[in-house]
Design brief:
heterodimer, A: 114 residues, alpha+beta, five-stranded antiparallel β-sheet, two-stranded antiparallel ribbon, B: 460 residues, Alpha-Beta Plaits, 27% strand, AtuA_N (chain B), DUF1446 domain-containing protein (chain B)
Chain lengths: 114, 460
């Protein structure tokens, strides 16, 4: 049985946030392409929605880009009104990529040491 | 393979590093290939803020850093036939062009040809109520809304016309960002505006370059995790494009930053929703079959781009006068800082309630939870981590009543005497807000125009 280890996404992947109105998109790319299918299994729309529910997020859509080994999460209604209406210091939601990177995943130890 | 055309970027937003264009132009000149340089300095609301400036002074309302951006590079660009394109005209392209003409004369370039692109400003020409709404701010009440500006995102065609007329500097307002890269490519290679595959290359080139350093290491570097050379000196991007549609991203040799698969992926997906439908006025870009290849140090080739026909409609973004935003901050530090910060937050909410101020308010505990938090402070209220050495308490309040918002923000100031022990460092400010609503308009209802004149003619 493979030895699994729990790590934050930040240890194995990178991300960038962008905005359009009250919607945020978060890219997610594993550094090691071998992790792509494992992240596809574990970083689900439901888990990402849970991360942003406290801010009123209503829906998450994940677009998969297997050739780039990348995911694009589109999170609706997460920016508390968007840059024009939000009281948040970061109305654009640029810092939200690192909230996504705080999510933990469970990965085989041998893949992490490769 | 044919001789590539180089597209350089000199700014990714209004507020970018003003010395960034210098190494880009140095590299374009050194390489001696046909090239163009573009500046993207116009955000969605920047045009409304610029419109307010223009109302104050008819000679203002364009990118405030324009002269600083162009002065060090204009002479070299004119001398080496590297046209400069920018949406730095913002709400007042004619005034921006006059500034460029004065600068050109001062630099001894009286024959510098300056184009003004018009047509994007539809504030007076289109009745918005009759258009379908694309997206809108929830808090926008159209019954009382006062329009500040309405601008259509126009495509590359008028920019190409300006280049055909020999423009050295093309001053535009609200063009789409990718159009600034599409235009010089269409002009140079003679691509058709119906060749979706080629236009897709141009749109991807514009998309990857439009945020400047974001594809060469900006908002990418993460110390100890994703390090880049010389983050204080990030080289802004240069694209190499071939007639056949080859696209490669690189940067000036003598700069910091990095171009690799990671930086290009991050920027490729930036502000993208459905990867198969990135809508621009000139083409719908489809990156769902895209792949990347590192072909050298700081050189990444982009493959597999596809294009679909351009939409019949253009996006019009209308900006309205919004509510007022009041903000105030104070700090606490040292023993018991977290308890003092939490108590201060409760007191601020209590004060607003006691005084019956008609505002919507939020308190952040900066250093515990703020940018990731919600208006209700769900994260800092639930925080159970270690005692922070310092916390900055921030109140944000908004409302239609300017005085009420001002009074709310001043409650933070009052904490200098009424607050917890060891409260200090108060700051507060009041700013007007802009709300936006975007519509779709048939493209034939947005006629565009171009005038090209030399600096000498403009001064006469």
């Amino acid at each position: 049985m493979t030895d699994m280890i729990e790590v934050p996404l930040h240890a194995v992947a990178h991300s960038r946030a962008g905005d359009k109105g009250n919607r945020c998109n978060l890219s997610l790319m594993p550094y090691d392409p071998r992790l792509y299918p494992l992240l596809a299994e574990q970083v689900t729309e439901a888990r990402v929605l849970d991360l942003f529910r406290h801010r009123g997020a209503t829906r998450v859509t994940r677009h998969d880009l297997p050739l780039l080994h990348a995911f694009n999460f589109v999170v609706d209604d997460v920016l508390e009104g968007g840059v024009n209406g939000s009281l948040n210091l970061d109305g654009h939601g640029k810092t939200q990529s690192f909230r996504l990177l705080s999510l933990t995943v469970s990965l085989p130890r041998d893949l992490l040491q490769g | 393979m044919s001789t590539p055309f180089l597209v350089g970027n000199g700014a990714g937003f209004s507020g970018d590093r003003v010395d960034a264009p210098i190494p880009v132009v140095r590299s374009l000149v050194r390489r001696g290939l046909p090239a163009a340089l573009f500046f993207e300095t116009l955000g969605e609301r920047t045009v409304a803020l610029a419109q307010l400036e223009r109302r104050r002074d008819p000679e203002l309302g364009y990118e405030p850093m324009l002269e600083r951006l162009l002065e060090p590079v204009l002479r070299d660009c004119v001398a080496h036939r590297i046209p400069i394109l920018g949406n730095f005209g913002a709400a007042n392209p004619p005034a921006a062009a006059r500034l460029v003409a004065r600068l050109a004369l001062r630099l001894g370039l009286p024959e510098c040809r300056i184009a003004v692109v018009t047509g994007d400003d539809v504030t007076a020409s289109i009745v918005l109520d009759q258009l379908p709404v694309h997206e809108a701010d929830d808090s926008l009440d159209m019954k009382s809304a006062r329009l500040v500006s309405a601008n259509a995102y126009i495509g590359a065609a008028p920019l190409v016309e300006a280049l055909r007329q020999g423009a050295d500097v093309v001053v535009a307002g609200r063009t789409s960002d990718p159009a600034l890269a599409i235009a010089p490519l269409v002009h140079h290679f003679g691509w058709s505006f119906a060749d979706w595959e080629k236009l897709a290359i141009g749109a991807a080139c514009g998309h990857l370059l439009e945020c400047g350093s974001q594809v060469t290491g900006g908002v990418f570097w993460d110390p100890g995790v994703k390090d880049i050379p010389e983050p204080w000196n990030i080289g802004f991007p240069i694209a190499e494009v071939t007639a056949e549609g080859g696209l490669l991203i690189t940067k000036p040799e003598d700069t910091g930053g990095i171009v690799d698969l990671r930086t290009v992926k991050e920027q490729l997906l930036y502000e993208l929703h459905d990867p198969s439908r990135y809508i621009t006025p000139d083409v719908v870009l489809d990156i769902s079959g895209c792949s990347l290849e590192q072909v050298g140090k700081d050189r990444v080739a982009v493959h597999g781009l596809r294009g679909h026909p351009a939409p019949d409609s253009l996006k019009v973004t209308a900006c309205f006068e919004g509510t007022w935003l009041g903000e105030g901050e104070v700090s606490v530090a040292g023993p018991n800082a977290l308890a003092r910060a939490r108590a201060t937050a409760e007191v601020l909410h209590r004060r607003l309630e006691m005084r019956g101020l008609p505002v919507r308010a939020r308190v952040d505990l900066i250093g515990v939870a703020s940018v990731h938090d919600s208006d209700s402070g769900a994260l800092w209220r639930a925080y159970e981590g270690p005692e922070p050495p310092e916390v900055r308490i921030r109140l944000a309040a908004e409302g239609a009543d300017r005085d009420a918002v001002d009074q709310a923000a001043r409650e933070v100031l009052a904490l200098l005497c009424c607050g917890t022990a060891g409260t200090g460092g108060a700051r507060w400010r009041l700013t007007p807000r802009i709300l936006t609503r975007s519509y779709l308009v048939l493209r034939e209802r947005v006629p565009t125009g171009v005038t090209v004149r030399t600096a000498r003619e403009m001064a006469a």
